[in-house]
Amino acid sequence: MLSVEEALAQILSRVRPLATERVDLLAGLGRVLAEPVRSTRIIPPWPNSSMDGYAVRAADTRPGGALTVIGRVVAGALPERPIGAGEAMRIFTGAPLPDGADAVVPQEDVDASEPKVTLRGVTERGAYVRPAGEDVRVGDLVLEAGTVLGSAEIGLLATLGHNQIEVSRRPRVAVLSTGSELADLGTEPGPAQIPNSNTYSLMAQVMEAGGVAINLGVAPDRLEVIEERIRRGRDADVLVSSAGVSVGDLDLVREALVAAGAELHLWKVNMRPGKPITFGSLGPRPVFGLPGNPVSAMVTFELFVRPALLAMQRRRRLERPRIHAIAAAPITNRGSRRGYLRVSLEQRDGRWEARLTGDQGSGILRSMVQADGLAVLAGDTAVAKGEAVEVIVMRELSR
Ligand code: AMP
Ligand code: MG
Q1: Taking the CB of the first residue and of the last residue of the chain, which one, N or C, has fewer CB atoms within 10 A?
Q2: What's the whole-number mean pLDDT along residues 80-91?
Q3: Burial track 151-173 (b if 16+ CB lie within 10 A, e otherwise)
């Protein structure tokens, strides 16, 4: 059976980056930059003061020395003249340093009775001066392609005058749920029915991964209906289905994918939950047949579909952060498959503690609700209380 790493490598080897599009700067928040950005500006453009005080020549400064104040310069104005020996200029934060000056003495460090200021000490060259280009110089590579744009990146792009930026298009992901037992949202489940949750958890995961989710609804366990729904998802960039991928008589998704023209590349991965995941190509489109149990569907999405969607958006880093946490109570993985166990994470005494969120049954969605991450355990292993365990962090820990 394939390992998780082998399966992911196969998947990533078959996904291609999508086209790019230009968007307004703020619409780029959370999107992936599609081109490297080099600076065409020097920031700050000229040396300027970081304090309110007096622009001086450092060589003129000594305790008790007096300088003649020859003018003032405020932010948004240019100095009217250079300063010479024995002279100073009143200056405010962000104002350009006058020629001749090479330091600023903060106003709290002088005794001022203008037009004279008396210094209390020696000021070093460069003191309280922000040199031209200390932030960015012309030609600097400031952002690499593949960077996710956060607030700092948006600010830097604004500094460089980018009204619009080139980002990768969002993948359109069609989501199909299969199973004759499913009652969709809006209908009360009948006597032998269960509510459809996968469509919604998976669509939400698509959106969290930067994609646009398209709902293909629920198909009963009938080959021709599933096949027809798969064909309906043809406009999408990716198709994700859930359920019907095991070995039962009514597990028809693989057959339906093939009937719709897909080529299947892999089936069954050495993991729990989620072993029977299927991956294939329908023309240029990656298709994922995820298992039906609500937790299996979410975990296989997390491990396989999410990285594929990020790669299609050109993200450089595809992996979630992994940490070593301390088991707050024993964590056991029964069975030979590698386990991905739902844990909550809590910081105690400067360390992260991991604790199972409850019963690990693959149908227990509530234990996913409380999960901050997935503890990764080899088959048939147990981590004792106080021992370290590797955890894939799935969400922000400051909730
Ligand atoms: P299957 O992979 O078709 O054998 O389904 C495994 C389990 O997941 C069964 O108990 C199904 O009823 C359940 N299941 C399948 N699809 C969904 C869904 N969309 N929402 C909630 N549970 C589902
Ligand atoms: Mg089924």
Answers
A1: C
A2: 98
A3: eebbebbeebebeebbbbbbbbb
Instruction: State the closest ligand 1 atom to the C-alpha of 245, by its place in the atom list counted from 1.
Output: 2
Structure confidence at residue 200 as a pLDDT band (50, 70, 90): very high
The closest alpha carbon to 103, from 41, 47, 44, belongs to: 47
Whether the pLDDT of residue 399 is over 80: the answer is no
| Cβ(182) – ligand 1 distance below 6 Å | yes
> Residue 398: is its pLDDT beyond 90?
no
320 closest CA partner among 205, 212, 240: 205
Q: Ligand 1 pocket, 196 CB below 6 A?
A: yes
pTM equals: 0.95
- For residue 155, what are its two tokens? 């600010």
Decide: 96 in ligand 1 pocket, CB within 6 A: no
* Tokens matching residue 261: 């023209």
Q: Which two tokens stand for residue 321?
A: 């952060």
> Residues 184-194: pLDDT tens digits?
999 999 999 99
Q: What is the pLDDT of residue 212?
A: 98
The two counts, helices (H) then strands (E), for the chain are: 8, 28
| CB-CB contact of 278 with 266 (8 Å) | yes
Residues in the chain: 399
Question: Relative to the alpha carbon of 298, which ligand is closest?
Answer: 1
Integer CA distances (angstroms), 184 to 4, 370, 397, in order: 31, 24, 32
pLDDT of residue 362: 96
